[in-house]
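Q: What changes when calcium ion is included in the input?
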Amino acid sequence: MRKIKYLFVVVFILVACTTKEKRKNSELVKLEDNISKPNIIIILTDDQGYGDVGFNGCKDIPTPNIDRIATNGVKFTNGYVTYAVCGPSRAGLITGRYQDRFGFCRNPLFAPKDVNMGLPLTEQTIAEELKGADYQTMAIGKWHLGAHEQLRPLNRGFDEFFGFLTGGHNYFPEDLVFNDLSELNGQWDPYRTKLLRNNSRIDEKEYLTDALSREAVSFVEKNKSNPFFLYLAFNAPHTPLQATDKYLERFNHIKDKNRKTYAAMVSAVDDGVGKLLDRLEALGVEKNTLVFFLSDNGGAKNNSSDNGELRDGKSSLYEGGIRVPFALQWPGKISKGIIYEEPVISLDIAATAMELAQVTPKNELDGINLIPFLTNKRNGIPHQKLFWRKYDDQSMAIRHGNMKLVQYKTPDKVLYNLKEDKGETIALKDSISHNLLFNSYKEWNAKNSDPNFLGLIHGKKYDSLYPGRWKEVEKY
Ligand code: CA
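A: The predicted holo structure follows.
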């Protein structure tokens, strides 16, 4: 009897040890799995010109911290967004799909009662996809993808939100006077709402850009042990041109008042980027964090930005509207100092993030994982062709290799060779290339949708169709 009891105890200890070992192993696998999933940060600026970062040759606005990203990793000389203004460009970026596929073809109106005014619920954001891979997610700053409750960040895959819902915002805290959407009466009033922390309005004390940077640092601190996804969408340097003395004093050498304020706003972003990068280093997560930096469209006329050699700016389908400052770093995986000249596009961010997180997207993506191209694991180029459409202007553009066919405010489509003619000044007479590119565009466009909603340019029409637009809005 004693022997049997002894045997039972030995078996019990063995089973307990094995179970403990198994649990330990599974915890280790989970930990290793999480380590293999990099953190993802997207730093998006608003209406910043191609020429307004040091890594693209800016002379009057130092951007040492934004430049760190390009120096520590990759500078893309041909980095594009999918549209030349804010809303549609963000819809493409956050889904990884050309927004024309799902009818987000124009800047939305601010219409918190309208569930169709924003990113359709059939679409999945990067955050929704990464949630499936146990990522902690946060959106900071400008949303602009819908103000209806169902379209807000917390219902689109984000665990946390700090920012504002509309297409722009005032920067000084004393200007933020509206406590609730029900107090608003016009399209530009949302620029002066108090900021939202999740579902609550807060009394912010700091200059907007500093507040957004502070929240970004706090989020990575809280989540240093999790895989995390941070979408940091600065409002700067979008109008209104507003900066504090702290930043303005750095630019006394700039005589033009607007350019000086713009420079100060970019400098505030740069300080914030520096704080965030410093904190990633201090927390020891820098090597496993992939950081993207880009602007949502080219520099605008009204903010005194500079698109360098590129033609035109915001709103245009010439290069100045769609080619943007674009860089990434991932120190654990990607070599320093790469200059990548093949065309890439904001759509690639979602594709890269989802593949690294090992999730299968619900919808077909238009971007591609850039990492194998940057580590020489894959030959060739990410994209044979890139496409742009401005539905309301009946404008189009396609880039194939160095050739670009564009129709923007001209009666005809015009062909340029971007390698020899970055500024799109010499119209080429090559009917074969012309036809080839236009046929490709037509093939792509055949799968696109008409707009889902009336846009910023249809404010009066929308008001007449929906006279209660500003009334009876639920509290938020
Ligand atoms: Ca913009």
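Observations recorded in class: The radius of gyration is 24 Å.
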